């Protein structure tokens, strides 16, 4: 049912210092937002740069729309990249920035004007057309950069941590904005980020990366509910790990309940705090720290140093302590 | 400006050096008031264990109470004897006296002027005055001291002098053009090529800065003169190659390039490193080829430094002396040599002055071109 837009076949690219990606196999579906998520140095940006043609591969193939683009340089690929920052050319106005690529494609002037007007309309910032990038905020600059890429109607829009230089509030707005633009244009997006919250909020599917390999690919919900290994479990959302000899039991702070009378095991409360619409209680059990979310109404009955019973309602068990970096298709 | 400087100085005064001085001043002032009553009475309670030391202190302070304010010598002598007085000064806090405030104010007001005075005098005496004098002299007749245009007219009418102008401009323009093209090209290569050759060349570009001008010029002469290294090498193969570069403008230009290419390269490398790689990658991504990226992204972003380099090379070469003196011929001559002739050989100070003003105007023309462009960019 879903058409495959990009097929990455066993690509590897290892840098001199040993960093890089090894045997990456990945498919990007038409019209989805796919996020590559992982800590810095995990190879997520390398995959994107290989896709965009800014980085050659040691082995493997990249197919976009069924065409092998592995050997094509960046300017010949049907992709367009938005970088972390410094995307726009400072010496050109917004209009000139947007028009540059279209002029290269020998488009008629009237057509260019028409397309740019429509694009600024889509970005909801038609008033900036004559301004220079230095007169725009960081968020506005990144939106124009996205617009510039979209004008070229790429098969895949590549975004390399485009919002990491912006502050938290703007970042949230930008995510919503990107989702809206993606809905309206139907463009396929590959998005790189180290921010799991951003990945969760934005993506149709997330690729969790670990040291140059893929740890897990799935929808945000599935990755949150069923992390395939301890690495993914600890990287996405908050997770408690209880070391039980051979195995490690992992459960989310919201998947356990507290009770004064009965439960699975007894733990001592360290700290009670409120996060507004819910309460956070940290406990110690067998010298291991735990964190549990409780209803804000129930928060009042718990005090530090109190002994309470903990019931784990939903848990995953992982082999300890080896971090087996397995792979999984969605 | 002044306020900032004052604050800085004040900070410093309040800091390390001044701590002693201030404490002592305070002590002296307090002592002045106390001396109206009884010195010994004031000093007595502070005597802790060493009686003699306290007495000597009191004595020194007494003797120098009146001229004490602001006098460092006293402060030093007091410090030498102070000893037990350190605690004494710290414990009593009194309102700042009007007199002390006056001293402080005086110091704040005058110190910056005092500090800038030597530089100011130097500039006025050795730069502003001679320039003004030269300017006036250039309009004066050497014998009658009357106003005249003749000194200028000479340089614009005399065919030999007109040749000198044309010769100088030709050399300067050729130097600027060649140095910019070659230096910029080299900078582009050094910046974008990751090869070891590029790294090696980059460290070589600073070498000309370390070689004294005269030494470099003589070295080049040894190579390019008609009986020089090149000639002797050609003889090894049975030829007799005479470069013909000596006493010719091409020799001067060649020497100029030795200095100016590395200069351009250094400036342009700094400018290129400020250019963000993403800016170029974004252009590549959009489909621009290398030449287009150079024209549309790299050149506009380094334009300011191109202007700086052009202006500096132009100005530096208009007044150049060593190279044309050693390599240039008897006629035509570069303006620097023509100026030297007027001053040293013809001892015509009025014409020297006029030529100086003309050269200054040529240079300021290129400088104003740079400034105007700079201002326009900032808007």
TrEMBL record, chain A:
The record, for SUPFAM superfamilies, names: P-loop containing nucleoside triphosphate hydrolases (SSF52540)
Annotated InterPro entries: AAA+_ATPase, ABC_SmlMolc_Importer, ABC_transporter-like_ATP-bd, ABC_transporter-like_CS, NA-bd_OB-fold, P-loop_NTPase
Q: Describe the location of the ABC transporter domain by residue ranges.
A: 6-236
Keyword rRNA-binding assigned = no
Q: Is Nucleotide-binding included in the keywords of this UniProt record? A: yes
Q: Which GO terms describe its molecular function?
A: ATP binding
- Kindly give the Gene3D superfamilies that the UniProt entry links to this protein: Nucleic acid-binding proteins, P-loop containing nucleotide triphosphate hydrolases
Query: Which keywords appear in this protein's UniProt record, sorted alphabetically?
Result: ATP-binding, Nucleotide-binding, Transport
Q: Which superkingdom?
A: Bacteria
Q: What is the lineage of its organism?
A: Bacteria, Bacillati, Bacillota, Bacilli, Lactobacillales
Q: Name one Pfam family in it.
A: ABC_tran
What name does the UniProt record give this protein? ABC transporter ATP-binding protein
TrEMBL record, chain B:
Where can this protein be found? Cell membrane
Write down the PROSITE patterns for this protein, in alphabetical order: ABC_TM1 (PS50928)
Q: Which UniProt keywords apply?
A: Cell membrane, Membrane, Transmembrane, Transmembrane helix, Transport
Short name of one Pfam family: BPD_transp_1
Entry protein name: ABC transporter permease
Q: Region Disordered: which residues? A: 36-56
List the source organism. Answer: Lapidilactobacillus achengensis
Residues crossing the lipid bilayer are 110-131, 167-190, 210-230, 250-270, 306-327, 353-372
Q: Locate the ABC transmembrane type-1 domain: which residues?
A: 165-370
- Top-rank taxon: Bacteria
Gene3D superfamilies recorded for this chain? Answer: MetI-like (1.10.3720.10)
Cross-referenced CDD domains: TM_PBP2
Presence of keyword Hydrolase: no
Kindly give the membrane topology term recorded for this protein.
Multi-pass membrane protein
Instruction: Answer whether the UniProt record assigns the keyword Nucleotide-binding to this protein.
Output: no
Q: Which InterPro entries match?
A: MetI-like, MetI-like_sf
Question: To which protein family does this belong?
Answer: Belongs to the binding-protein-dependent transport system permease family. CysTW subfamily.
